[in-house]
Specification:
With about 140 residues, the chain is an alpha+beta fold. It has a single domain, classed as Pleckstrin-homology domain (PH domain)/Phosphotyrosine-binding domain (PTB) (PH-domain like, Roll). Helices cover about 20% and strands about 35% of the residues. This is MTMR6-9 GRAM domain-containing protein.
Length: about 140
């Protein structure tokens, strides 16, 4: 499984960020990468939010239903460092795509998916590493001198 399969919507404009520390919402662009959730206003001098997926403890979904019609919703992220971040998304399809992506990326079970880079050698490894270096032989060489 690749990260591209988990990220259904990699970029979305017009996301409102509600944070505990700010008194008014921040309107910006949300980008989802393999390891981070990035929200940027794309303005000079403004702060960006870079949130590691492993820092997300809980993902809550609060759909916005008006007259029995779904009009997006709010995704509440409760982090392991006790921050609470709310993302308000207007489109219902993007709301479900982003909430599913964040939930899957914050709960990865495969350890190899946690590494940012993968190395796949193009050749067969002939030794196992345990027979490459024998401490008894190396100490024997030191005693012989």
């Amino acid at each position: 499984m690749e990260f591209a399969e988990l990220i259904l919507t990699p970029k979305l404009d017009g996301v409102l960020l509600y944070d505990q520390l700010s008194d008014r919402p921040i309107d910006g662009t949300l980008c989802i990468t393999g390891h981070h959730l990035i929200l940027s206003t794309r303005k000079e001098g403004a702060q960006e939010l870079w949130l590691l997926h492993q820092n997300i403890d809980l993902v809550e979904r609060k759909p916005n239903i008006v007259n029995n019609i779904l009009e997006g919703g709010t995704i509440i992220l409760k982090c392991k460092d006790l921050r609470i971040i709310a993302l308000k998304i207007a489109s219902p399809q993007e709301y479900f795509n982003i909430s599913n992506s964040i939930e899957q990326l914050s709960n990865l079970e495969e350890t190899r998916m946690l590494y940012p880079f993968f190395y796949i050698p193009m050749y067969n490894i002939l030794e196992d590493g345990y027979s490459l270096y024998r401490p008894e032989q190396e100490f024997g060489k030191l005693l012989a001198n």
